[in-house]
Amino acid sequence: MKIRLLFSLFVLVLMMVNAKAQITTVGLIGTATPDGWNSDIDMVQDPDSTNLWSLETDLVAGEAKFRADDAWTLNWGNNTFPTGIGFQEGPNVPVPGGHYLITFNSNTGAYFFNVVPSDIGILGSATPFGWEQDINLTQDEVDTNQYSIVLGLVIGEAKFRQNDDWAVNWGSADFPSGIGTQNGLNVPIPLGGDYVITFNKSTGAYNFLLATFSNVGLIGDATSGGWDTPTPLTQDPGNARQWNATVTLGDGGLQFSGDEGSVIWGGTDFPSGTAVADGDTIPVPAGKYIVNFNSVTLAYEFIPIQIFDVVGLVGDATPGGWDADTDMERGADSSEWSLRVVLTDGLAKFRANHDWVVNWGSGDFPSGTGVQDGPEIPVTGGEYRVTFNSFTGVYNFVQIIVPDRVGLVGAGTPIMSWDIDYFFNQSATDENVWTLNQINLDGNVKIRADSSWTINWGAVDFPTGIGTQDGPNIPVPAGTYGITFNSNTGEYIFSDPLTSTKDILDPSSISAYPNPAKDVLNIDLSAVNMQGKVHFNVFDMNGKLVLTDAQEANTIMKLGVASLPNGYYTMQITNDKYIIGKKFVILK
Prior knowledge:
The protein is mainly β and 588 residues long. It has six domains: 26-115, Immunoglobulin-like (Sandwich); 120-210, Immunoglobulin-like (Sandwich); 216-305, Immunoglobulin-like (Sandwich), CATH 2.60.40; 311-399, Immunoglobulin-like, CATH 2.60.40; 406-504, Sandwich (Immunoglobulin-like); 508-586, Immunoglobulin-like (Sandwich), CATH 2.60.40.3080. Helix content is 0%, strand content 52%. It is built from no helices and 61 strands. Strands 45, 46, 47, 48, 49, 50, 51, 52 and 53 form a nine-stranded antiparallel sheet that branches. It is globular and about 80 Å long.
């Protein structure tokens, strides 16, 4: 094997685990739990039903997932709280801090984080459990009469009651706010969505604040669109209440806008604060920023990004030593830099503009977070693909090894074997590009080097993705495919057999907006040279082809997506020469 590979450390793969095997334990893991992502809190199995599990515990604000047998082979998540249906490799569950009684069904994926103890709950046809079960509200630590919850509701009715009993209950015909009275009318919920719900058991006062928006943006004279055209923020796929974007702003003021201006939030604090409805204009100095905004808590922050003309690697481990930088290549994001380079045993640092005024270092190798004027990075000799983020300081030295052979293996191959490979063809012009022109597949597969599990790539994404060492199996729906794989980057594309020899373009080389989209998705191809007929194939999260289109190439292309239901999608863009995979979300 040639000594150039894409991984800094290799471990032997354990025996493949059948995800349908008998589950012995289910645990909760994540930043919301006491030991973070390091270890699970085991749940208690119901003696009468092996699929039901429960846990009472304190959690901090953060994220969590359910997983089986203290391993990631089988795990569940979703972006809804306090109830939801977890699915395999789903997003992390966003969890506010509190004391909870958690229930989980490992057969259906259904979960419920119920606040305990709490004497006030909400129930009704608009709530996840209907009139059968209360969902408890969290009591305010300062004002013990005040309760709140963020909850997804559907069109229907609701009431508040005490101690899960109808002896004391409150209702009123008013919405979104009112004064609930004992045995009052049901509260009508005319519109489904996420709500911030507050209730006062002393006065009966309640309020339902809608927190679900199809789009959120920035307006104001500090933005490129002024006060008339919102600059869109992108909704976090794992948290529907979190919005962010990287934007360039001028001196001036701005506000946040929801659903084309139906709701306006503003504030007085910069660079961070908590907005209020119809608040003041936020003053902003000119610059490039990462903007974060939460449409439930209304917390916002503007994180400035310093843009450098050049970032390089310097040190006695580098070709230029300590006297001359080896310049890195800027990515689509101005803060992302990369370099393929041969290094020797020695020391290195990152620095900006060929000067020591701004430099980053750390004592960690092959990955770490560089800090200003930090220590030199100890480098082990070899050929590496080096990535660095000049905003976060995060770096990674990934050793490059070109395998002698690359093969496809798994239960989804024609012989359904995890031991016998179907070998790719290596490109005559690029030693890192491998193709398999035509193969019938149905089920889980992985890509590996030299018929060994020492080096293997996998991911949950289909039909395009970036495989990682010891990553999960790639789920492939039944069909005939051509496959293109890059052993340098881990990128793979399953496509029509006729397109399997196309060049893979980095997904970051194009942009798709707004994301989430509603009716039309704009695809910006200005950074790539795609000519002729451009084909669009859209796949749902199960890998099913749900939309196709073909158009003549243009700088900005528009894809009609109004027919697609809410969900996560992968778009495959091809012409005669190139193929690109891009993810997007539909939210209406």
